[in-house]
Amino acid sequence: xxxxxxxxxxxxxxxxxxxxxxxxxxxxxxxxxxxxxxxxxxxxxxxxxxxxxxxxxxxxxxxxxxxxxxxxxxxxxxxxxxxxxxxxxxxxxxxxxxxxxxxxxxxxxxxxxxxxxxxxxxxxxxxxxxxxxxxxxxxxxxxxxxxxxxxxxxxxxxxxxxxxxxxxxxxxxxxxxxxxxxxxxxxxxxxxxxxxxxxxxxxxxxxxxxxxxxxxxxxxxxxxxxxxxxxxxxxxxxxxxxxxxxxxxxxxxxxxxxxxxxxxxxxxxxxxxxxxxxxxxxxxxxxxxxxxxxxxxxxxxxxxxxxxxxxxxxxxxxxxxxxxxxxxxxxxxxxxxxxxxxxxxxxxxxxxxxxxxxxxxxxxxxxxxxxxxxxxxxxxxxxxxxxxxxxxxxxxxxxxxxxxxxxxxxxxxxxxxxxxxxxxxxxxxxxxxxxxxxxxxxxxxxxxxxxxxxxxxxxxxxxxxxxxxxxxxxxxxxxxxxxxxxxxxxxxxxxxxxxxxxxxxxxxxxxxxxxxxxxxxxxxxxxxxxxxxxxxxxxxxxxxxxxxxxxxxxxxxxxxxxxxxxxxxxxxxxxxxxxxxxxxxxxxxxxxxxxxxxxxxxxxxxxxxxxxxxxxxxxxxxxxxxxxxxxxxxxxxxxxxxxxxxxxxxxxxxxxxxxxxxxxxxxxxxxxxxxxxxxxxxxxxxxxxxxxxxxxxxxxxxxxxxxxxxxxxxxxxxxxxxxxxxxxxxxxxxxxxxxxxxxxxxxxxxxxxxxxxxxxxxxxxxxxxxxxxxxxxxxxxxxxxxxxxxxxxxxxxxxxxxxxxxxxxxxxxxxxxxxxxxxxxxxxxxxxxxxxxxxxxxxxxxxxxxxxxxxxxxxxxxxxxxxxxxxxxxxxxxxxxxxxxxxxxxxxxxxxxxxxxxxxxxxxxxxxxxxxxxxxxxxxxxxxxxxxxxxxxxxxxxxxxxxxxxxxxxxxxxxxxxxxxxxxxxxxxxxxxxxxxxxxxxxxxx
Length: 990
Hints:
Distance between the termini: 47 Å
Helix content: 40-55%
Oligomer: single chain
Largest sheet: 14 strands, mixed
């Protein structure tokens, strides 16, 4: 059953959209929360059972949520240590929700999988006697397996690297198969319009000349007489009338379902056809060689915009609407049309310059050479910049925000340089594609001036003939002579004698097709012989055959590429398979299916049985060995906390998100439901039946799809086309949950032309397929979905890369929570920032880093990694946020502090490094355990109180309300103070 939420009353149907937007999520989707509560009850004792039917909408729930942040393998290692510490203190059983993003989802999904199949925590053992006194734990075989795959992208070294490169190349070839047909068809249209070099300076409209007395050989068809006899305006009028009729029919067909339907599009198309007809006739009157149609359209546009200004002046105030009315839309459409016409008319100009460059030793001038050479040089420079920026796109995003430079002016300068580099990189690949199109067109156009300079002329005579035939460029040559100056007589004389040009280094007889590659000349000749065009002139013997060849190959490639599916050749599958190999396994079974030995895996060859086909819905299902009792099937049961896998729904083309500039919505995968507010929610089992490739490994990989052409609120628009064409696409196309169990048809189709949807950013929530990427592309902590469910206590692990310690993800979460949910978070995070900044600065200073921590001025400051803040849900509902931040306190173990001294950005090394060594993985895991265990055991301070006036406390000390409430939610004994002297107190556990 799809989520129905609350349906507006019939009398309020007109305000349904406003109802949807203004009604809180927890009220619209109360049934989702109730179903999740039923699932959570299957892990709780009878005394702690929740009654879903007695919970009001938007009421705070007495549940504990654990959020594991994004950050790639760095976050995964840190969160593993946190989970080990929680299990060490017997708290895993008290976690009701597990919300993960990106790297936190690696280990979070591994936790859900292993607990579901084994029924226990497999990454550490509880201490004997149940007293958590040890400051570290030993590895288990499961930890050893993950440690072996810390370098999960290329675990087998060169072999995996080569296979990965081969997969990347395959994806690039697939993308070429999607883009090359467009380039070939455009080149075919260009050659059809201007088959000869002499035609490049003749104004035309798709091969129909706009100039009087144009060369008849410039038309490879016999349609020109229609325009000559009736005029373009008449033809445009007839086409416009036909389109209006089609629009009327479409209106009658679609009126019952979608109002106007495509009628408006037909009306605009009719107006464009009529306008082009008038512009073409006007261009004939102008009698200019290049950009005639552009100039004619611009002049007409000036008149139309002036008429619009008069109309606006004479209209009454209530009819002067400017926002999304038809007149501004029509004006914008005209400007786009003018730009398209100018671009198309620019191509013959560039092709003409290319011919001049090739012939520059005989007939060319410097201007054409400069233009074409500049474009080639720019493409050559932009290409490596594009590769560099693409590889370091995350760092460039930080530069744009100015987060990496302390000086305000320095930050501004770096942001400007980064923005320029981004735009250069963004232009690199489109520019290369444009150059390819120019060359394909150039090879198809015959150099017809050479037909006048054929045998019996010698080679030098041929070049002189060609130079003479081009009146705009003087013949090339040299000047020689002598200059004399007689100082006594006061005279100056000069004798100058013209000298013929030196013969070319390559003595080759030129033909109209000398500039064409031999293989292409051969193909054109074969086609020409089939149609007996060999003696019909260069236009028919060379240009027309290439038009046919380009068109056939382009159409064939287009038909074949139509069968390419969105996810088959992206990098998603490579990423998913290697992640699942590392994190999804059955620790009770070896790779050969036998029972695994209870010893740590010390070599990569000893693997566990993979669980990469496990479905999301299996996280809440009957036990695999469950048998029917008395004819009743075993009930579904959770083996692990209810898992919310957070991703970002990219909807750059939609008003739903773009009114606030987010470009994305919160999309979640869970054992019961899949979807988002924008797409609505569908049952997970129903989505899995429709989407055969959707499983737990796929959801985990989607949540970590950090590199993509479209990246939600982190999208870099200048790089979007380049990233899409280079197949930097870790995202996933999923069938829209909105239409999984609905009878309504999708309003848009995205998947057949998925690549163009990604390039253009035309991604919508009401299309047949939706594009999902890393959950960190909208919120990187994973806390937002827990706030929606109004959890009483949320434990959040922030292990993102935050070297400046600006807490950017926390700030974004607070903003989203306040705007979307009306929830306010007050967290005293500044002590963590100040302590870690000081230690990282000391580590960066290699001289002072040699000093003992005991002599450091920072040694006396609190050892704090955790802050407890208040979540104000409104009314009397107040929850608590336990915030664990990747940070330093100088009391870590020896190898953590040693690594920190050698790596100044630890514990915030770049997420771009996904190739962790054993040392890297271990120091982050150990840090996660150290932070959490120190907090729970009371060895470290915890920041409490308001964010403006934080104070220090201990989790094992009484006296703080926030500490007491969190302990109660986690099922820990309450604390009370008992005086032992006039100046001291002692904490006693009840």
